[in-house]
Amino acid sequence: MKSKTDIQSLYFKYVETTQKAADFNNAAALLDWDQEVNMPSGSATFRARQSASLAEYAHHLITDESYGKILQQLADTTFLSESQQANALLSLEDFHKHKKLPASFINKLTNQASISFQAWTKAKKKNQFSLFYPELEKMIALKRQQCDLYGFQTHPYDALLDDYDRGITTTRLDEIFGEVKTHLSNLLEKILQKPQVEDDFLYQAFDKENQFSLSIEILKSIGFNFEEGRQDYSEHPFTTSFSPQDVRITTRAEQKNFKGLIWSSIHEGGHALYEQGLPTDAYGLPLGMPASLSIHESQSRLWENCVGRSAAFLKYFFPLAKQKFSTEFEQVDISMIYKAVNKVQPSLIRTEADELTYHFHVLIRYEIEKALIAGEIQCKDLPTVWNELYNKYLKVVVPNDTIGVLQDVHWSHGSFGYFPTYSLGSFYAVQFFEAAKKENPTIEQDIQIGNFQLLLQWLRQKVHRYGRRYSSDELSKLATGSELNFSLFMKYAREKYSAIYGFDVN
Ligand code: CO
Predict the structure, then answer these.
(1) CA of 273 to the centre of ligand 1 (A)
(2) DSSP-based three-state secondary structure for 166
(3) H or E element in which residue 163 lies
């Protein structure tokens, strides 16, 4: 039997090791950020091994048997405080999960990811799926092996989903996407029967630096702390963080598309506010980590869509935009820009999709991944399957694989199970936003004058400060009173888009 003092010193040892692993992982993340933002093009080879070495060392620390023993002892004691116990139990869960994958398997996976990624890059550039699929096939075989190593109850894909959102299953996703297929399809059909909104004015020449400085202004006003973070350019926008006190976001400027930089910047800004809001005293520990990728995405989507594409926000934002782009927006008023940034149109590219058709892009990937992992479809048939599904759900014809089945990087990395979090995040976003407004009825008026304090405080209080303590649905229940409820998203979508496109809500 260990004394309370013994246990506290064991806990201290646990914290020390876990935070050291976080240091190495965060240093690796900084190298990765640099690779995307600053690194000269010829420096990739050694950079890859440097960041792999750091990650490997971190992994070694938290999979060592002695670390597991400490965790087991901490899990069995009653001498820990509630949050100490939560940290120890979550770390023990992680430990067991990590142990299920032998080092040799992780090596294979890492190597295959790098080979598949190179094959994908080439295939996409040359519009030749055949250059990618042999490597993708190997990757899928490894992912199926991973499902067996992890173990699962109902569907092998569940094992992979769990990496991105603890506890989410295909059973639950079938339910949710089932509703997408009926209700959201219905709404989309109604919208497409109406005359399309005008948005030509978004595609003039907009000075890139002005776009960037406008985005900085917006980020400041929503609460992004530039003393502890920054925004740079990269090819694909992303957020990364090395601690809650060093959060980096990136964006991409396109001169001829006003919709690009600003809203991608608000999106990443939402991710960043979450990272900056995680408790510093739990640095590197589970309670200092984001709850799940779905919850992470809920934060970005909330700011990008619920806030950034709302009429209230545009009342504040558009006059600022007009100051920078007075000629371009001379003939444009708030109602025009509101409709334009909310234009709904089925398209080919997921990352450019509007807030409604987006979920059909995700649904398609979800159906394909599930079938691939179950061995129900063959890798070589992917282009055909892909094109058929795009035709079925979005009624679009895919002209080539580069902007079809080869458009996303995820599969080359082996990130199977990631896509659904994009949709779940969007649905949680609406649920959080509605709850925040209910508790603080002035939020919308505040947004009109560029005051985002109340909303941010609500998110800090209800979501950010808990780290990984709760699963996505537990957190949602605590913050909003119920688990994920897709009908709230539908209600929001119906009300918003029936007004924009001019039809009856029912
Ligand atoms: Co995101």
Answers:
(1) 12
(2) coil
(3) none
pLDDT of residue 5: 92
Using an 8 Å Cβ cutoff, are 364 and 349 in contact? Answer: no
Cα 297 to ligand 1 centroid, rounded to whole Å: 5
Task: Compute CA distances 173 → 167, 252, 370, 376, whole Å.
Answer: 11, 32, 11, 18
Helix (H, G, I), strand (E, B) or coil at 233: strand
pLDDT of res. 13 = 97
Cα 300 to averaged position of ligand 1 atoms, centre (Å): 6
Please state the φ and ψ torsions of residue 498, each to the nearest 5 degrees.
-70, -35
Tell me the catalytic residues: 268
**Consecutive 10-residue averages of pLDDT for the chain (506 residues):** 89 98 96 93 87 90 96 94 97 96 89 91 96 96 97 96 96 97 97 97 97 98 98 95 98 94 97 98 98 98 98 98 96 97 97 96 98 96 98 97 96 96 98 98 97 98 98 97 97 97 88
Integer Rg of the chain from CA: 23
- Could you identify the residue written with the tokens 């949602």? 476
CA of 151 to the centre of ligand 1 (A): 28
CB 397 within 8 A of CB 346: no
Spacing, Cα 331 to ligand 1 middle (Å): 33
The structural domains of the chain, with segments of one domain joined by +, span 4-127, 170-501
In the prediction, which pLDDT does 48 show?
A: 83
- Determine contact, residues 215/262, Cβ cutoff 8 Å: yes
What dihedral angle (degrees, nearest 10) is formed by the CA atoms of 414, 417, 420, 425?
-90
Ligand 1 centre to CA of 67 (Å) is 33
**pLDDT for position 49:** 85
Spell out the SS3 assignment of 389-437: HHHHHHCCCCCCCCCCCCCCCHHHHCCCCCCHHHHHHHHHHHHHHHHHH
Which pLDDT value is given to residue 182? 96
User: 488 CA distance to ligand 1 centroid (A)?
Assistant: 21
How far is Cα 247 from Cα 224, in angstroms, rounded to an integer?
9
H/E stretch holding 193: none
SS3 call for 248: strand
State residue 2's pLDDT score: 83
Report pLDDT for 505: 84
Strands 246-251 and 239-243: antiparallel
472: helix, strand or coil: helix
The whole-number pLDDT of residue 1 equals 64
Q: Which CATH class is domain 170-501?
A: mainly alpha
Task: Tell me the CA–centroid distance for residue 314 and ligand 1, in Å.
Answer: 21
Beta sheet of 229-233, edge-to-edge order: 229-233, 246-251, 239-243
Q: Are 370 and 420 in contact (CB under 8 A)?
A: no
325-332, Cβ contacts within 8 angstroms, sequence gap of 24 or more: 325/206, 325/207, 325/210, 325/258, 328/201, 328/204, 328/205, 328/206, 328/258, 329/201, 331/201, 332/201
